[in-house]
Amino acid sequence: MNPFVFSTTKNIHFGAGRIATIGELVRAQIGERVMLITDPGMIASGIVGRALDLLAAASVTVEIFKDVEADPPEAVILAAVAQANAASVAGVIGLGGGSSLDVAKLVAVLTLGREDLKGMYGIGNVKGPRLPLVLVPTTAGTGSEVTPISIVTTGASEKMGVVSPVILPDIALLDPELTLGLPPHTTAATGIDAMVHAIEAYASASANNNPMSKVLATQALILLGRSILTAVHSGNDIAARSDMMLGSMLAGQSFANSPVAAVHALAYPLGGHFHIPHGLSNALVLPHVLRFNTKVAPQPYAEIAPFAFPDLSAIEGQARAAAFCDRLADLSKACGLQQSLREMKIDESMLPRLASDAMKQTRLLGNNPRPVTEADALAIYRAAY
Hints:
Rossmann fold, 9 strands, 385 residues
């Protein structure tokens, strides 16, 4: 067995209704003055208002930063840092989807004024320390609450990652009741995103691919595979929502230590150029990347397929891997997601630019089970078109 390192969030609080404990947790972990980082949708949903009431009841004063946007640019992060400094906060809460959690991670480091955002890009470049950090996800997809990763949009469209165990939070508070109001399309896109995390982590060519990540990936796919359609089409089913949130977290723990690969590398340019939500970007390229991979590396996909789709255990080897790709495409369609780049109104002339941009994601492409050239990336985009 190869040596490996496994890191995750040190305290995880999971359960329906757990949001009721946020006041006492934050008071104990952070203190009396915090910044809460979120987005306008969370404000409108009423979830932030409920959290503020609970924090006030625990005598916690809250400075709100509510301007997070999808695929957050550097300017949003720096604005949040400036506001946190002006308010002299003692710690940070991230509440919302993956973008809010990613911003919160970086603000917790940058507010101390010892590091520069541009110097943090890449793997292991955050020195620390950071402010105390509590993350509260309201979607079941990114797993950001248990990953040492934050994604930032730099320039017009390129995405960069900050990867360091320093940005793992002190507490992840997961309450599936917070996902009951998610629309079907968001539920589907974030759910497929979580499945991608588990699949890519299991098959990752990373030297740190490890038995713990593999076990977490399989358990994640059991939970996600059995519950995603119910969560999409019967959104108030708390059992399905609980499966989705726990599955998302387990997939997050898995890929945090056995990193994702070409699906994400090809998805990022779609988000950068066309502002397609990250989960949907993954769903659009997923079956096509996996079909490319399974031609030369079918084994990991054949191994993991029955965890998501138990009936595939009746098929063996390459045929099972191929059937897995088809079933994932069928699942995306059954969830109501768009199925092609054409359907997203992307001009075919943009495909070479997308392929060129995807090749910049060297951190991810190095983990793919099959090497990907720019010509390969273009062929995959054409298959997805």
